[in-house]
Design a protein that fits this description.
The structure holds two protein chains of two kinds.
Chain A lengths: L18 E5 L2 E2 L4 E2 L1 E7 L2 E8 L7 H5 L4 H8 L7 H16 L5 H29 L4 H21 L8 E2 L2 E2 L7 H24 L2 H7 L7 H6 L4 H5 L7 H4 L20 H23 L20 E8 L4 E8 L7 E5 L1 H6 L2 H5 L4 H11 L3 H5 L1
Antiparallel strand pairs in A: 1-4, 2-3, 4-5, 6-7, 8-9, 9-10
Helix pairs in contact in A: 2-3, 3-4, 4-5, 4-11, 4-14, 5-6, 6-11, 11-14
Chain B lengths: L2 H11 L4 E4 L4 E6 L3 H10 L7 E9 L4 E8 L6 E7 L7 E3 L8 H12 L2 E3 L31
Parallel strand pairs in B: 2-5, 6-7
Antiparallel strand pairs in B: 1-2, 3-4, 4-5
Classes of the chains: A alpha+beta, B alpha/beta.
Chain lengths: 377, 151
């Protein structure tokens, strides 16, 4: 016969140490090959050190050996969800350097394509955000509606994600005859669908519990860490390049820069949802008024930039994207630097997530909307 | 401030620096020794308050390694391009500005990784993307032995 003794566990005598856990590089919530070295105590995150470079492809080095129109084809491999904005940034930079004025039609087409890209990007962000927090249904809703935009892209420029539609001096082809009708149809459909997104996820109690008052980023930190896009605007950092340094057809349209000062995960989430309405509002103002004219100006066969330095800022779906070109007058650049929004946004993660539970880290990372090739370049 | 006003103000404020109006932005070129002091004043003088470091990068020129900072003021919405030439092109050293603009910490790590610029007083100067066995690929004398770029 064995005697069963009562075992008393006293919680004061349990000694816990901090320990390090690798989250990634193969982790579903990092959405790509990113490794976070997380210092934990139990479930509480104390420090996060991101390790990047797993898909560093040396795009800046490659750019030094190729011509300007070719560079555009590399840029949409960085942030593949904001491909059109990245392409446009290089195209605008080259046009400004050569002082080429593009036709009004090009400006309208570019802006509409930008906003469609932003919508598609935010749809994908929304569906994976839900999925990261365990709500798989959002994934099917988001991808279903995103498909409509990708079909419009495919009809006009042959590609669904890596568009390569912009060129220095204009766009590659004119819009498809169906373009305007399909965009208007899409907006009609999506205006009905977007409130469903709110019903499905935004109002959900579990979702709100997991996002409200989590991952706070103050305005000062947002500015100091250069957090831009909806992530920065959630902290009250007015950083919309479309407002402050307008380009293409943005000076012609009315839209609101959505700002909030709460700075938590839920606010960043909500601002992206509101931005989708603003994007549709911008498209509606432009789609019926696309002026007639050429879709590109004739450029020389070999594009050579004058000597000097050129910088162009655009607003992608994730924040401020910058192209810095140093030219020595040859057909290929002397140095190219891409200021990618994801790079600056990622490293503010420690500020936001330290002190929270590891499950909250997943939610916080989702609202930063990271695209890893954009960080690694 | 407009670019012209900013140029005039910076010329008065920074006597040792070289201020000129570039194609887009006002450019201010400082000596490596003055970099840290200049960046602190650019951020803290209320009329300037350059608090948002947009972009930090390096350019390998034949005679010098230049570090370029694009900085914006959120309050006044003006942009300045701060440049610093390092004394030695092969072993370039400048002071860190990561205590002035926090985001510079990782931008400087990237510049160190790709161009081999050492940032004095940086708290965590390690390579960011590449393995230690690599050279500094964005330098112009980098030998592309695996022929990634040139065929």
């Amino acid at each position: 016969m064995s005697e069963i003794k009562e075992i008393i566990i006293s919680t004061d005598k349990i000694h816990t140490d901090q320990y390090l856990v690798n989250m990634g590089p193969q982790h579903p919530s990092t959405h790509g090959v990113l490794r976070l070295l997380v210092r934990l105590e139990g479930e509480i995150v104390h420090h996060i050190e991101p390790h990047v470079g797993y898909i560093h492809s040396g795009i800046e080095k490659m750019c030094e050996a190729i011509s300007y129109p070719q560079i555009i084809h590399l840029t949409d491999r960085m942030d593949y969800l904001s491909a059109n904005m990245n392409n446009e940034a290089v195209a605008l930079c080259v046009e400004n350097a050569l002082q080429v004025e593009v036709p009004e039609r090009v400006k309208y087409i570019r802006t509409i394509m930008d906003e469609l890209s932003r919508l598609a990007s935010h749809q994908l962000w929304w569906c994976v955000m839900g999925m990261d927090l365990g709500a798989l249904t959002t994934f099917f809703y988001g991808l279903r509606d995103r498909e409509l935009i990708l079909d419009i892209f495919e009809e006009t420029c042959g590609a669904r994600m890596t568009l390569n539609y912009n060129l220095p001096g204009g766009v590659m082809f004119d819009i498809h005859p169906n373009f305007q009708k399909r965009v208007k149809d899409f907006i009609k459909i999506f205006k009905k669908k977007l409130p469903e997104y709110d019903e499905l996820l935004t109002g959900n109690v579990i979702f709100q519990e997991r996002t409200k008052d989590i991952g706070y980023l103050s305005l000062d930190d947002a500015i100091a860490w250069g957090v831009t896009g909806p992530s920065g605007r959630g902290s009250g950092f007015s950083c919309d390049v479309r407002k402050h340094q307008p380009y293409s057809a943005y000076p012609l349209v009315q839209f609101e820069e959505k700002l909030d000062t709460k700075g938590d995960t839920f606010t960043r989430y909500r601002l992206r949802m509101e931005e989708m309405y603003e994007s549709m509002h911008i498209i509606e103002q432009l789609i019926d008024n696309i002026p007639e004219g050429d879709y590109a100006v004739k450029m020389k066969g070999v594009v050579k930039l004058p000597e000097g330095e050129f910088y162009q800022r655009v607003e992608t779906a994730r924040g401020e994207f910058g192209v810095y070109i140093v030219s020595d007058g040859k057909k290929n650049p002397y140095r190219v630097k891409f200021r990618s929004p994801g790079f600056s946004n990622l490293f503010a993660l420690n500020k936001m997530a330290a002190g929270h539970k590891i499950a909250d880290l997943v939610a916080i990372m989702s609202t930063l909307d990271l695209v890893i090739p954009d960080i690694d370049r | 401030m407009t670019n012209e006003e900013l140029q005039a103000y910076l010329t008065g404020e920074f006597s040792k620096a070289e201020v000129k109006l570039g194609k887009q932005y006002v450019e201010i070129l400082v000596q490596a020794a003055d970099l840290h002091e200049t960046s602190v004043r650019l951020k803290n003088v209320p009329e300037l308050s350059f608090d948002y470091l947009i972009c930090l990068t390096g350019v390998d020129y034949p005679e010098t390694m230049q570090i370029v900072y694009h900085i914006e003021s959120v309050k006044h919405r003006h942009v300045v391009v701060l440049k610093v030439n390092t004394a030695d092109r092969t072993d370039p050293k400048v002071d860190t500005v990561s205590d002035v603009w926090q985001t510079a910490k990782y931008h400087e790590r990237e510049v160190y990784d790709l161009l081999g610029v050492k940032f004095n007083n940086h708290t965590d100067l390690r390579r960011l993307f590449l393995d230690d066995s690599w050279g500094f690929p964005l330098r112009k004398d980098y030998k592309d032995e695996v022929r990634i770029v040139e065929r």
